[in-house]
Task: inverse folding
């Protein structure tokens, strides 16, 4: 079962089984109900209203001459049919809300049904639909006039099947204007000048002017049935008498009521409310309500929108709605009743009220008229007939029921119809009387003139006066025999047995005057100033203000109810403080006090008067107040609590200024930024006090409290599915915890979709994997580079040892071999050993130089020419070879590492020529230009092409020269032939080898770049 069906079920359960929880109090006058009116001229709806009903969802529907209007207590909304559909006729004459949630609409042409956002028309039914009625088992009955088809005036719709009844079904007239249920299950039919009680197969007709039948049946909408099963009908009776017929227990009776004016006033509508009270609408005299034998009237003069009444309706909370030709009127009960001149007050100037021991109240009006209200009737005590008015200053009733009052400049007593004057012993008046009380010994104390007088047996027994007494304003009796005076400066004085006790006020402004006093049996004194409620107990005085929880300041009067709770009459309304709260506050003065407030919405019209008492309690527990204009009453023992939880609805969804129908599963477009959800809760008792809570599941972590606001706002919601849940409570705090829900979703943009984020995730994984692989590769390359560097270093060392130490050792071996060949020649042996020693020494130096080259340059000096000259002048060169060393250009500063590599390449070329070429001449040329060029050329045998290309196994000379040249970014070329010898040429770019010392690091970096660039 859906949420809407649950709400409808709750609605009808409350409507049919819980009606006693809340209804209009029949004991009040119409003028004492809260009355609200909406006129067509106010612009809240269009068209003239014709009928009204409440649907199962709680909404009020108003039929007008221009269509339908929906009302939730706050907002009128013009109903619009779905696109492509419309009512057969915009003029609506009848409406009916049924238990299945349907709204049946009777127009001037046919019938329609609105249910679940679907409009269904019944084109086969013609004529004007005058009345609608829900029958048994979900059947719908309708009355028709102006019929153009051949079917009868009464029709029934059941399970979408239509059947009409006419003369052949014992319906005696061609048109039916009104329908009503009978207590025996039959239907009452109104046919202009006759009535019929009908059921399929039988009928009973009541014609005028026939013996035993009622006469003069009214011509239009004149029938109604009540909860007791009785039926009311109106008679057309011109003149000063309004005549009604009452059919009860199978018999007709007649009730006659005087009209408000002796003018013709046709009865247009009858309605019986839940309390079986009869309401009557007329064509030009407003409306009446029948109470017993009295007809109460309410018309335009009292505030009705028009004197032409069309129809009545009572909603689920008991409020009565009246449709007139010019508007809609609402009458609802209030906790606080008001009495004004319309109800019998002599004047709208009630300034003091006093409870009578006989159950009535005394009211002082305009300081001169004293009235008694008892059993709902007002009577006047003062002024007496044919006597001038006098100024009355205060009222008091003693234990014997005698009324004491200050009159003009003295004190009077009213007892059993006689008046008596109290005077001083010298015969002078007491003076202007401010306050009167009676102590536990039944002595009367009067604060009059400058004195405090004690009166025993109508004689002044004692007089007290002082500057403080002269400033006292209010007087109260203490339960221990004394009296308490309240002064204008906030001080309290207590007189008992000749002793005086005082309590000062903590206030220091002009609002400190004590306005009212109340004493408890234990001697506690309660009082008010305009700012506070205070309590004086023993020697201690505490103050309760807005700081401790009072809803407002401006306290005018106080009174105690039967439960010992204190009621404060204040500028914001009636404030009730329970006795346990007061006891807790006395023990903990700094704690907040919990209060209950009745304000204007409950009928309170608070105001300040200058006379006392301003509040009173009658023996039946009712509390009475005056505000300077009217008399007000609250019967706290018979307060009705509104136990009907308000139906809650989501009305519309507005997203980025586009409105959507609140159906389930709304899909909002992507990038929706501003979202507004309008909702409502339907309670007509006090719609402005309906409170809400809502939560957007998927966004809100907890319930939001917008108080009475009926919109929820959200911005920049993320894509996804949401559920909006709203609940509400009525004016008495009864919550509809089921509330209403709305499911909707916001579509994602392309970059908010799942596949986009999945793609981003995959891409992220790929990027992470790529970065991981890159990092692994970098680490591998670094490791390989380290290995390569070590290999290169080993290779360099191999070259060094090959080009130096190994060559020298090889030369030494050759010397030794030569010496061994001629071992018998001592001279030659000695010369060979000397040469071997030289070679071994050179091998030692070259080994040391190779080790030092790991840390420093082999050639300390920068001049390569000197280095090559030393290489050609040593024992390395055979004696048969001539050497030419030429230097072209000026020597330049060179990078030491590059310079050493050039030297090693040149040295290896010179050594190879000296050892292997068998040449007779060697040219060594060193050219300094833009680049450095080294050329070593001999005229020997040349180098075999295979050796030149691949080198000789076990020898690394040529390979080492190529590696060194590649390392420094140089270009090495070897040209050899058997006829022209061998030429080895090395060209090193100047930007690599020539550089200032201060740019050595940059040169080294450029060397590394070239090495990297030239590597195969």
Result:
């Amino acid at each position: 079962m859906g949420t809407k069906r649950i709400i409808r079920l709750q609605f009808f359960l409350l409507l049919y089984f819980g009606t006693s929880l809340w209804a209009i109090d029949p004991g009040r006058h119409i003028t004492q109900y809260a009355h609200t009116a909406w006129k067509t001229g106010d612009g809240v709806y269009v068209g003239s209203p014709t009928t009204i009903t409440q649907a199962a969802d709680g909404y009020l529907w108003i039929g007008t001459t221009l269509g339908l209007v929906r009302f939730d207590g706050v907002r009128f909304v013009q109903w619009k049919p779905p696109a492509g559909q419309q009512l057969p006729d915009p003029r609506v004459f009848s409406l009916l809300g049924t238990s299945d949630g349907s709204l049946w609409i009777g127009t001037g042409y046919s019938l329609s049904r609105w249910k679940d956002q679907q409009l269904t028309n019944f084109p086969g039914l013609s004529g004007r639909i005058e009345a609608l009625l829900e029958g048994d088992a979900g059947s719908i009955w309708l009355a028709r006039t102006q019929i153009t088809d051949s079917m009868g005036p009464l029709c029934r719709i059941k399970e979408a099947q239509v059947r009409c009844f006419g003369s052949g079904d014992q319906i005696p007239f061609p048109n039916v204007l009104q329908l009503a249920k009978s207590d025996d299950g039959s239907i009452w039919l109104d046919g202009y000048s006759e009535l019929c009680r009908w059921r399929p197969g039988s009928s009973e007709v009541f014609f005028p002017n026939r013996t035993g039948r009622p006469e003069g049946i009214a011509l239009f909408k004149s029938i109604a049935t009540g909860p007791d099963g009785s039926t009311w009908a109106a008679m057309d009776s011109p003149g000063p008498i309004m005549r009604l017929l009452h059919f009860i227990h199978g018999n007709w009776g007649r009730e006659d009521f005087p009209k408000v004016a002796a003018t013709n006033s046709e009865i247009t509508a009858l309605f019986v409310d839940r309390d079986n009270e009869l309401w009557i609408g007329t064509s030009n005299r407003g409306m009446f309500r029948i109470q017993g034998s009295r007809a109460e009237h309410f018309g335009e003069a009292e505030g009705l929108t028009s004197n032409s009444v069309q129809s009545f309706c009572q909603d689920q909370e008991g409020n009565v709605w009246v449709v007139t030709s010019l508007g809609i009127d609402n009458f609802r009960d209030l906790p606080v009743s008001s009495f004004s001149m319309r109800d019998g007050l002599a004047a709208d100037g009630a300034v003091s009220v006093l409870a009578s021991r006989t159950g009535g109240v005394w009211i002082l009006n305009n300081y001169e008229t004293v009235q008694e209200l008892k059993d709902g009737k007002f009577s006047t005590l003062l002024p007496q007939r044919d006597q001038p008015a006098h100024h009355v200053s205060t009222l008091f009733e003693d234990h014997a029921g005698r009324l004491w009052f200050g009159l003009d400049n003295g004190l009077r007593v009213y007892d059993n119809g006689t008046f008596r004057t109290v005077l001083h012993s010298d015969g002078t008046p007491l003076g202007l009387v401010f306050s009167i009380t009676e102590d536990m010994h039944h002595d009367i104390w009067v604060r009059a003139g400058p004195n405090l007088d004690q009166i025993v047996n109508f004689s002044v027994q004692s007089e007290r006066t002082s500057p403080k007494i002269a400033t006292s304003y209010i007087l109260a009796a203490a339960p221990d025999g004394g009296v308490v005076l309240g002064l204008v400066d906030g001080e309290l004085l207590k007189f008992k047995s000749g002793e005086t006790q005082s309590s000062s006020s903590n206030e220091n402004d002009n609002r400190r005057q004590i306005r009212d006093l109340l004493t408890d049996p234990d001697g506690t004194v309660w009082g008010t100033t305009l700012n506070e409620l205070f309590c004086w107990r023993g020697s201690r005085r505490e103050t309760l203000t807005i700081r401790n929880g009072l809803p407002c300041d401006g306290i005018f009067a106080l009174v105690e109810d039967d439960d010992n709770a204190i009621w404060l009459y204040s500028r914001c309304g009636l404030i009730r403080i329970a006795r346990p709260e007061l006891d807790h506050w006395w023990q903990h003065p700094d704690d907040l006090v919990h209060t209950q407030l009745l304000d204007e919405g409950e009928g309170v019209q608070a105001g300040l008067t200058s006379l006392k008492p301003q509040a009173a309690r009658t023996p039946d527990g009712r509390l009475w107040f005056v505000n300077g204009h009217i008399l007000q009453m609250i019967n706290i023992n018979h307060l009705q609590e509104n136990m009907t939880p308000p139906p809650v609805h989501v009305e519309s969804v507005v997203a980025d200024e586009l409105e959507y129908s609140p159906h389930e599963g709304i899909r909002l477009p992507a990038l929706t930024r501003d979202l507004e959800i309008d909702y409502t809760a339907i309670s007509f008792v006090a719609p402005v006090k309906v409170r809400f809570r809502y939560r957007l599941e998927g966004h809100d972590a907890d319930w939001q409290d917008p108080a009475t606001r009926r919109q929820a706002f959200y911005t920049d919601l993320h894509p996804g599915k949401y559920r909006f849940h709203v609940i509400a409570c009525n004016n008495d705090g009864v919550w509809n915890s089921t509330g209403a829900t709305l499911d909707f979703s916001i579509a994602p943009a392309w970059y908010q979709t799942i596949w986009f984020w999945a793609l981003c995730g995959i891409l992220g994984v790929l990027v992470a994997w790529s970065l991981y692989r890159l990092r692994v590769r970098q680490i591998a390359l670094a490791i390989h580079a380290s290995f390569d560097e070590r290999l290169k270093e080993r290779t360099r060392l191999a070259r060094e040892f090959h080009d130096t130490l190994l060559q020298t050792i090889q030369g030494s071996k050759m010397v030794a071999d030569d010496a061994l060949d001629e071992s018998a020649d001592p001279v030659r042996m000695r010369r060979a050993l000397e040469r071997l020693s030289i070679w071994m020494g050179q091998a030692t130096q070259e080994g040391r130089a190779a080790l030092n080259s790991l840390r420093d340059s082999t050639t300390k000096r920068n001049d390569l020419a000197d280095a090559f000259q030393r290489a050609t002048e040593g024992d390395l060169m055979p004696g048969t070879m001539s050497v030419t060393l030429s230097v072209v250009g000026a020597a330049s500063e060179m990078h030491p590492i590059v310079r050493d590599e050039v030297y090693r390449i040149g040295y290896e070329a010179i050594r190879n020529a000296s050892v292997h070429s068998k040449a007779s001449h060697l040219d060594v040329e060193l050219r300094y230009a833009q680049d450095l060029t080294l050329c070593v050329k001999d005229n020997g045998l040349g180098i075999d092409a295979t050796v030149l290309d691949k080198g000789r196994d076990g020898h690394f000379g040529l390979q080492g020269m190529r590696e060194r040249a590649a390392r420094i970014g140089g270009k090495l070329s070897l040209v050899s032939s058997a006829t022209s010898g061998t030429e080895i040429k090395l060209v090193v770019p100047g930007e690599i080898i020539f550089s200032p010392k201060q740019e050595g690091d940059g040169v080294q970096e450029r060397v590394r770049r070239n090495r990297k660039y030239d590597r195969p």
Observations:
- The first strand starts at residue 34 and ends at 39.
